[in-house]
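Thread: Modeling a multi-component assembly for a lab meeting

Hi all, long-time lurker, first post. My supervisor asked me to bring a structural picture of a complex we are working on to next week's group meeting, and I have zero experience with this. I have the sequence lines for every component (245 residues in total). Could someone generate the structure of the whole assembly? Inputs are pasted exactly as I received them:
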Amino acid sequence: MKKLAAGNWKMNGLAESLAEIDALAAAHPAPGCEVLICPPSTLLSKLSERASGTAIDTGGQDCHVAASGAHTGDVSAEMLSDAGATYVIVGHSERRADHGETDATVRAKAEAAWRAGLTAIVCVGETLEQREAGQTLAIVGAQLRGSVPDGATASNTVIAYEPVWAIGTGKVPTLDEIGEVHDDMRTQLTARFGDDASGMRLLYGGSVKPSNANEIFGVSNVDGALVGGASLKAADFGGIVSALG
Ligand code: PGA
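Re: Modeling a multi-component assembly
Sure thing. I ran the full set together rather than chain by chain. Output:
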């Protein structure tokens, strides 16, 4: 199983940001690690062209469930693939919160991703209130059951555990807390998908930086990271990639 360092640029990046790809490609010294950048869809096609011939893959941040049609402002998985993507993030907590996406929506989006030949990165994670109420494993378990479609395999699906309260806040769970959730996710996925789940990559996301990447990647069942803020600068993201490689 190759580890995965996935960068989510969110709603950041203009044409001038494409130069970060050159710097990242030049710095990327980690053959044991796959590197992915998910830019805003306005940059996807240009970034995919710029990254071709490098070890960097590109992905979308969301997709519609339909392949095409009257859905103003939306982008389909087929369009992402056409623009060079090989992955798409589905069910990020910002999509769940800002656009009311339910587990059923996220599952349908993951299926749309597969239909277009993309690997789906399915995001799950508890809020601070849920963690403080001792509900973390129950919430994450329910999201996994509801958001990951039947037929998930190590090659068509990646799971990202992102505690909502750790995203963009500089707060990170303890290593024991990360390990507890990742071990539980592996157990659940193995119970449901059997051997296919053993190679499924489980990413941690939420305030990952070069300074904490090493210790987080040492936690059992952490197979990479989904990185927001620290993916915007090649120098920072390169440090995270090196920690994985
Ligand atoms: P962050 O975001 O690294 O800026 O905390 C992570 C994410 O939302 O994927």
